[in-house]
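Dig into what follows:
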Amino acid sequence: MTTPKTLFEKVWQRHSVVPPASPGLPTVLAIDLHLIHEVTSPQAFSQLETNNLPVRRPYQTVGTMDHSTPTDPSITRDHWTVLDAIASKQLDRLDQNCERHGVPLHGWGSNDQGIVHVMSPELGLTQPGFTIVCGDSHTSTHGAFGAFAFGIGTSEVGHVLATQCLLQHKPKTFEVRIDGVAAPGVTAKDLILAVIAKNGVQGGTSHVFEYTGEAIRALSMEGRMTVCNMSIEGGAKAGMIAPDEATFAYLKDRPHAPQGAAWEAAVADWKTLATEPGATYDKQLVLNAAALEPMITYGTNPGMAIPVTDTIPDPACQPDAARPSLEKALDYMALKPGAPILHQPIDVVFLGSCTNSRYSDLEAAATLLDGKKVHSEVRMLVVPGSAHVKRRAEENGLHEVFKAAGAEWREAGCSMCLAMNNDKLGPGEYAVSTSNRNFEGRQGPGGRTFLASPLTAAASAIAGRVADVREIL
């Protein structure tokens, strides 16, 4: 008899090349897919050059340009060299490094270019049972397919380029079960914000979340990616969802997915990855989706989130240990304890990022905005997650809906998620953002961010203040 295993334990076991020599030491873990971009790869390639090493497996490495690329459609590559020499140099360096080492690159102007965590799944590069790494915090996105995917540092990027392996301590397991059926207006973004608000930004430290339950299974693959994307904001090493028929339907016939007999064999294998009955987790959190409302953050980390109908928490009512951080956050956000978050005036709405820039995100917002106008005092940026998303949106007329409403229709890229290029907030400006981090200055020096779903963002753009989408629905 063997001990029943969880999804994570199965993937880990498959990729353990050299187990720890003694307790407390790391495992040598094989990496199936290494995603790179222009910001965290230059120093890693320099490590290879210093040590006269090639990229070990260039065919298991894929590059894209996303962080430093401008989203203003009027800017050309030559123009960008003049406007931002540093960002342009990063892009040039990635071009050169990928060409020198034979690494496939989806660069500026490519039909497949996009945010790394949007581009990879839509090309079928992301697959169940894989180990996937990238020099980016939100690599956990790919766990939606049943992959063990996590962000790594620049020196680790160099290690994977050189060896296609990585030293890793084995995380513990953590089941996040969301039962029930979510009400209209409650989306994947609201589910994960509710999880982080309940469990805290450090609650998942040293663990891998496995999301289970009726509400998770009801999500589309794009919704599952939103949930897994923000696992890191809950402190987890990664987030995973066992592959099922929705996973297989999403991947079938994508460019890098297995084809023909190989597809049938892959699906048969992927079906064995699910957590086995009787398997136990080190920790567990259970929520009821039916009890959840649209969520929004009010502070300076994603755990500072409340239902949109709630009031701002009072530091005086918090435990002594939590009081200073809440006081500091409310001071930065210029919000008063006990005040409602609903109807808080805003200046900007950002629809984009690796959390919520996929076609279904844009479609949901466009459906709400159709025939309506963005408030005259609000600037709204709509930034597709990839060239594929942008083309599909334009083929179906979503861009015309956004432009008719008064929103800006942009090129694919990371954009305002991390205040890249000129896509940023001014000091004191408030934004409802579909991104993943609301840290001080994250979207621009002095900028103040409310994280929310695409539906809440669109409703707020129309109202000119934080809105409850259910009032429109």
